[in-house]
Amino acid sequence: VEQGVIAVEMNRRVHSVGRGGLPNSSGQVELDAAWMEGSQLRAGGVAALRDFLPAVSVARKVMEKTPHVLLVGEGAEGFARQQGFRSQRLLTKESIRLWREWKRNQAPPGASGSGHDTVGVIGWHKGHAIVACSTSGLPWKLPGRVGDSPIIGAGLYADDQAGAAVATGIGEEILRFSVTSRVVEAMRRGASAQNACEGVIRFMIRRKPETTKAMVAVLAVRKDGQCGVAATCRGFSAYVRKDKHITELGS
Ligand code: ASP
Questions:
Q1: Which residues contact residue 84 at a Cβ distance below 8 angstroms, ignoring those fewer than 6 apart?
Q2: CB pairs under 8 A, 24+ apart, for 232-236?
Q3: pTM of structure
Q4: Is the CB–ligand 1 distance for residue 173 below 6 Å?
Q5: pLDDT for 195
């Protein structure tokens, strides 16, 4: 799970996660990431983390080495340094170019319907779930803005007794609805993974019809290994790997 997330964080051509991720309105990349284990509900996260990679590994260390669940900003950076992570440059030539272009156009901060994404991975092995995610958040966001990804129950959730889920899309909408917590609770009540994901997306649209304009997607695995995925719009890709076989779950 960790290596899957790291591979995307390190890929400078991915403009929504880790190195190469698009910066905030002041030109700084701020990462959100988290890690959760379904056996004891242990979890760790970092938010608005600058200059350190892999963010998912810092999040995992928050779980392993501290009594806390979430560290933010300078506190998260100090912790990463103390844990032996080396500070590095997350901006690339291309991300600086895109930021300058945005600045020239004078669009308001956070006003971006696209260019954002999250890598989310759920691992399920012998009855135990691990879920992790990482993102640079919405491009041109206000400095200090935190999305759903590092928030347990919003961007990710895992409980071996029910299942695990991870979300992507406009973090504000995902936070408002505690999306992954709802999906996992629906599976606990007996819903299939697919029905749980669809049910929550439908509920969001019923309760707040503007949600259809926001991209939100959720992916889940139930405790019996069954998978599901649902989204407010097209264009979201999800894959399942069982042993050596990879299949696309839908887009
Ligand atoms: N959920 C991320 C955020 O709002 C962005 C995304 O997944 O598209 O920070």
A1: none
A2: 232/169, 232/201, 232/204, 232/205, 236/168, 236/169
A3: 0.95
A4: no
A5: 98
